[in-house]
Amino acid sequence: MSEFNGFTQQDFDVFSINGLEDRMAALRENVSPKLEAVAAELAADLTAMTGDEMFVHVAKHARRTTNPPNDTWAALAANKRGYKKLPHFQVGMWGTHVFVWFAVIYESPIKENFAETLLKNRKEVQSVVPNEFVWSLDHTKPDIIPHTEVDDEKLTEMLNRLKTVKKAELLCGITLDRNDERLQDGQRFIDLCRNTFETLLPLYRYTK
Question: What would the pLDDT profile of 180-193 be if each residue is shown by its tens digit?
Answer without folding.
Answer: 999 999 999 999 99
